[in-house]
Amino acid sequence: MKDQDLGLDFSMVIASTVHDMKNSLGSLIQAHGQWVKQLPEACRGTPDQGVIDYEFAHLNGMLVQLLGLYKLGVNQLPLRPDYHELDDFIEAQLAFHQEVLVSRGITARYAVDDFGLPGFFDRELVGSVVSNVVINAIRFARSEVLITAGQVGEQLVISINDDGPGFPARMIEEHTDYVLGINQNSGSTGLGLYFAANIAKQHQRKGVPGHIEITNGGELGGGLFSIYLP
Amino acid sequence: MLAWNQKNFLIVDDFSDFRSSVRSMLRELGVKVVDTADTGEEALKMCAQKRYDFVLHDFNLGDGKKNGQQVLEDLMTDRLISHESVFVMVTAENSQAMVMSALEWEPDAYLTKPFNRASLAQRLEKIVQRKTLLKPILQALDRGNPTEVLNACVALTQQEPRFAPLCLRYKADALRDLNQHEPLEAFLKSILADRPQPWAYAALGKLLFKRGRHAEAQTVYEEAIRAFNAMPVLYDGLADVLVATGDSKRAQKMLEEAVRLSPYAVRRQRLLGKLALENEDFDGASKAYRQAVSQGQFSRFKDPETNLGFAQALISRGGERGLDARTRVEINQTLTEVAKENGNDAGLQVRARLMKATSVASSDPEMAAKLTEQAMERLEGMEQFLSADAALAVASQLKALGQEDAGAGILKSCAEIYGDDPQVMQNIARQTDDPEILGAGKAAIDFNIQGIRCYRAGKLGEAQDLFRQGLALQPKNISIALNMAQSLLHMGVHNLDAASLAECQNSLKMVGKMPESDARFERFQKLRLRAFGE
Lengths: 230, 534
Known about the structure:
The complex is a heterodimer. Chain A is an alpha+beta fold. Chain A has two domains: about 5-75; about 80-230, Heat Shock Protein 90. Chain A has helices spanning about 10-40, 45-75, 85-95, 100-105, 125-140, 170-175, 180-185, 190-200; strands at about 80-85, 105-110, 120, 145-150, 155-160, 205, 210, 210-215, 225-230. A five-stranded mixed sheet of chain A has the order 2-4-5-9-8. In chain A, strands 1-3 form a two-stranded antiparallel ribbon. In chain A, strand 6 and strand 7 (about 210) form a beta hairpin. In chain B, helix 14 (about 280-295) packs antiparallel against helix 15 and helix 24 runs antiparallel to helix 25. Helix content of chain B is about 65%, strand content about 5%. Among the domains of chain B are: about 5-135, Response regulator (Rossmann fold, 3-Layer(aba) Sandwich); about 265-340 and about 345-365, Serine Threonine Protein Phosphatase 5, Tetratricopeptide repeat (Alpha Horseshoe), CATH 1.25.40; about 445-530, Serine Threonine Protein Phosphatase 5, Tetratricopeptide repeat. Chain B has helices at about 15-30, 40-50, 70-75, 115-135, 135-140, 145-160, 165-175, 180-195, 200-210, 215-225, 230-245, 250-260, 265-280, 280-295, 305-320, 325-340, 345-360, 365-380, 390-400, 405-420, 420-430, 435-440, 440-455, 460-475, 480-490, 500-510, 520-530; strands at about 10, 35, 55-60, 85-90, 110. Chain B has a five-stranded parallel sheet with strand order 2-1-3-4-5, with helices on both faces. The radius of gyration of chain B is 27 Å and the shape is globular. Chains A and B meet through helix 1, helix 2, helix 3 and helix 5 of A and helix 1 and helix 4 of B. Chain A: InterPro entries: 2C_sensor_his_kinase (IPR050980), HATPase_C_sf (IPR036890), HATPase_dom (IPR003594), His_kinase_dom (IPR005467), Sig_transdc_His_kin-like_C (IPR004358).
């Protein structure tokens, strides 16, 4: 049976289900956090705990992204750019992932070039992009993640670098055909880049759209993701 | 670091698990005072009794309850929290609350569930840092002094140019409150040329609209919607312009778009209902009004006009077919509420009864006759003026219920009160051909027009004389009465002799029964204050 037969808009069904899933997951994360606090010290910070924290964050990031993609699809993704202090923005990202970073034993630091004025972007949208990239970086990093913000030409660049094995060569070559990635067994990674590229593109200044770049190297030698915002 | 232990917190959420989880995060930070509430209504009561430094408010507290945006509006309008206090909107979804934004009041931050202690502390500390910096501006806002706000913005920007972006919106609001139209226009245009933001578009559109530059306002809104297609407030603004330029079909489409993006807005639903009714889209009107009535239950924008509009839409939707039982119950409910809650308002009592009579005219003629009679009795001794729209509706209902003479009487007094408004006269002409009603005011209106001309030319005595003659013919005409009073008060109230002062006061007294919804009510209030010195 096709969804038309049921008179259902299937993407809306998925979106509202995802919305409920996200609420559910939120309660789960909150309850789990409370529960962990009551455990004796020795039972905390185990590798299992690392897996749980990481997968919670990963799941949450995916659901946020899925809702974002739905809204993008139906032209309802509200873009609301404003001025934001970059250190505040990045600190908030790291605070959000604090548990995962601690339980996976990964050191995260950040560096912001001082360029006088704050950045101009949609905090929620760019926040969800950076958050997903950070989760990805945590997954592949051996011990370090570095977030930097600086200015290249007229554009603000926020980069996430790790000391892991880096992006596969094929992904770097084909990263403009993100959606291809979905069909080629690389899971949600392609979709993540598609989402990121779209969010970047929504940010325009005087006809110049934002964009993303992925490469390997950087200060830490692993994967290096950058989002350019005009 | 923040002195957490000296701060008062209020957490508002309908889930007790969430409240206790946030409470324990705050305790870990060293916070001593954490109060909680599970509804917005309770939160408002608590804020009235105690000053909170921080309010963490869940956006969605369930159907039929005030949502976070409504609570924030109430808190700010009733001045229950200081601008220095921190209001954080907690949402389940990143973009959920965004569609609410660019409204008059915005929270200091949005926080998406779930969040951990580190995130909460980080956000709160940053907000406090920012608010400390903006203290002079915020204190001026608490004092309601836009000039001080403006000065504080200038001082802060000079002291540290990198803070300039933080001041943009405060500065724009202050210029607006000071009616500094030209500087505001230039300022907003400079913001839009550099870094367009939805609020700046909305502010510019509103300013141009207010100044009657409709075509320019329309262009601004259309450009804004191309850049930010998911911001309801921009569709609202465009709809206002389209209504003013007479394109009510497209205005309705715009509001439908805004409602799709953000359905929880009483005023928007009400306006959509009104437009749809005008456009004879009775299904659409019923739907929008139904939403407006049910959302309005808990809102400060609750308004009997919404209930009356809803009933009208349902009756019109029934048309020739008549009304089914369920619809009759719905109409009865919504009108009973109007009658019950507005016991002292004669106009509303009359209108609710006539509306109800109309709805039962074919199913229960006896009841209809009884209600009509009651309405006529109240109409008899009523001093208060009906608004033009209300008067037109009452007249046509009276006529339909067999009270042709009473209907004509209403039209006649409507023509006297609002006769200088060609739109109103056109609407009256749709209901009657009686030259006594349509032509009665012509002479008075001519006196008024000539009077205005003389007044503008500085010929005060002549102007007064013309207004006086006009008013003698149509003593209830609001415009002429206000013009009479203003022309007398022109030289200052202290220079008036006793007779002139009495004349001035009498003309104001006569139109003192005008509806508060009338666009001229503010002008009336100002004149009354000057004439009576209250």
